[in-house]
Design goal:
- Helices cover 39% and strands 13% of the residues.
- Strands 1-2-3-4-5-6-7-8 form an 8-stranded parallel barrel, surrounded by 7 helices.
- Strand 4, helix 6 and strand 5 form a beta-alpha-beta unit.
- The chain contains 11 helices and 8 strands.
- With 282 residues, the chain is α/β, with parallel strands linked by helices.
- The mean pLDDT is 96.
- Bound molecules: 3-methyl-2-oxobutanoic acid (KIV).
- The site of 3-methyl-2-oxobutanoic acid has 11 residues, from strand 6.
Amino acid sequence: MSEQKKVTIQRLRAMKRAGEKLGVLTAYDASFARILDEAGADILLVGDSLGMVIKGEKNTLGVKLEEVLYHCRAVSGATRRAHVVGDLPFMSYQCSEDEAVRSAGRLVAEGGVQSVKLEGGADYAEVARRIWRAGIPVMGHVGLTPQSVHRMGGFVLQGRGQEEARRILDDALAMEQAGCYAMVLEGIPAELAGEITRRLSIPTIGIGAGPHCDGQVLVCYDALGMNPDFSPRFLKLYANLAQSIGDAARAYLREVREGSFPAAEHTFQGQPYSSGGPKTEG
Ligand code: KIV
């Protein structure tokens, strides 16, 4: 396999300057990470959305730093080219700047990621600045911030009125000023996302924020159709894995029950399971 250059924050900034769109997906394990990396994702985000799509919870609030760490290790070990971002979960950075630096440091040192993401605007500028000063790049996240679901009164569009829109723009500017290298814009009107994208010199990455951002992110399980019950308007299904996996499982179970699997050629040759890690040379 040819040597692939790791995507750096400098490269991501250069992409914005060159008008190249950033393609971002979430990833939670080695098998998916390898496929998404080889498909050419610029960034793989180990999102705290894992609380919902991996743990089956109704929001991200129960996700622990240890859990994000576990998934970061799996993803970073299987990723060669994409920039890997670890999401700081609820209560891993809100209580003090020291704790925030420590949590971010663990994601980098133990989880192997190249940067961290945190939710919040001007109120978190000092936290982002401290993490950046510790040598760790920070991706910001403003607009609909899922860790504040109770304050927002649900997963609802943010930045509708002029005052709200102004606050979100100010939040994004404050986080850029604090050193963030990129900014997720979630659940805001497309015109506001466009305005923020024009005003920031760092790349914006939208989800449910329209087409004017410098890049887009989707939760990979959602984009790949793992949950047929989840179909918000901002989402496009690029596959129907729920259907494919169900069909494959039914075929396998049928063959096991009728005795046609394993057949004569399915013999054991010293390789018990597949590995999700990167392909080995040669
Ligand atoms: O946790 C996550 O996956 C995210 C993205 C949806 C931006 O924050």
